[in-house]
Amino acid sequence: MFDHPMIDVGIALIFFYVVLSLIASAVQEWIASLFGLRAKTLRAGIRNMIGSQYTEKVYNHPLIKKLSKESRFPSYIASQTLSNVLLEVIARESRDPKPYVVHTGDEIRALVDKIDQNHPLKEILGALIDDSEDVAASLRNRLSGWFDEGMSRVAGWYVRQAKAIILVIAGTVTVATNASSIHLAEELWRNDALRVQVAAQAQEAAQSSDSSQLESRELDSLKAFPIGWKEIPNGVVGWLRTLLGWIITTAAISLGAPFWFDLLSKVANLRGSGRQPKDSQMA
User: Fold this and answer.
1) How far is CA 274 from the centre of its chain?
2) Gap between the Cα atoms of 157 and 59, Å rounded
3) H or E element: which one contains 52?
4) Maximum distance among all alpha carbons in the chain?
5) CB 75 within 8 A of CB 39
6) What is the helix (H) or strand (E) element at residue 113, kind and residue range?
7) Which of 76, 116, 157, 187 registers the highest number of CB atoms within 10 A of its CB?
8) Distances from the Cα of 229 to the Cαs of 50, 155, 277, in angstroms?
């Protein structure tokens, strides 16, 4: 049952989605790098947590500036670094020449009291201050933990943004190449040679440990698939079938290469676990 052509068609389609997903992810990362989306999302997240005023001062601090490249904002700031810099900024505003770390508990509470009454950061820091022996270290660590929680939400923002971009890329690539899943499945079912060829390539690709290790030859295998605008859909029914095929392909690509590569490995193992050749059985 594991040698049925339906299995090969499924493997070929999954492999097709892996390859297109890799292309979409690469384009998405290029766009993110070109427009600095990670850095902009991080800055927006920090601004949401501590306000515009303190965000500007934090980003102008030497420790943060050194993380930037070519006048761009950093795409990552460790929560401990962010906590240290913010507390140093607050200490500077009080015109106290002492570094933040040498302040006593009472002095730190006085620093927080000097923050604008209407600024939410005053209430946040006030809630994080405790009565431990080393108030400075305790507040720094608890603030760092609060930043970690906030960064988790920021990461979620970026993931949703990246998924939206990949969806647009997937739709564009699908229509540009006329990559209809319905047409592809039909061609693979009818063309035995093509089906066996692509299934063999998929089996070989499944031997990689993860999708990031797939080489350019796997991407070149896209040429073997029956896609492109060699033929125009005929009539309303033809266009509806093509449109449905585009939607399926776009939705599949948006799931990402890791998802399809994991599925490819499982299905390839299923196919490989089928009945053995007769020679092996007779031995």
Assistant:
1) 36
2) 20
3) helix 37-59
4) 89
5) yes
6) helix 105-113
7) 187
8) 52, 39, 40
Instruction: Specify the DSSP class assigned to residue 100.
Output: G
Provide the token pair at 206.
């499944």
Tens of each residue's pLDDT in the chain, 283 residues? 456 778 888 888 998 998 888 888 889 989 988 888 999 999 999 999 999 989 999 999 888 988 877 678 888 999 999 999 999 998 888 776 677 777 788 888 888 888 888 888 889 998 998 888 888 889 999 999 999 999 999 999 999 999 999 999 999 999 998 999 999 999 989 988 888 888 888 887 777 766 655 655 556 667 778 888 888 888 899 999 999 999 999 999 999 888 988 888 888 777 655 444 444 343 3
Do residues 185 and 227 touch, judged by C-beta distance below 8 A? no
Residue positions counted in the chain: 283
How far apart are alpha carbons 157 and 173 in whole angstroms? Answer: 24
Judge whether 181 and 13 are in contact, CB under 8 Å.
yes
Six token digits for residue 61: 């601090």
Question: The whole model's pTM is what?
Answer: 0.74
Q: Hey, what are 153's tokens? A: 């939400």
Q: State the burial class of residue 159 (Cβ atoms within 10 Å of its Cβ: 0-12, 13-18, 19+).
A: exposed
CA distance 266 to 264: 5
Q: Where are the alpha helices (DSSP H) in 129-206?
A: 135-177, 181-190, 192-205
Whole-Å CA distances, 86 to 113, 184, 269? 15, 56, 53
Q: Which DSSP letter does residue 96 get?
A: -
Whether the CB-CB separation of 188 and 13 falls below 8 Å is answered with yes
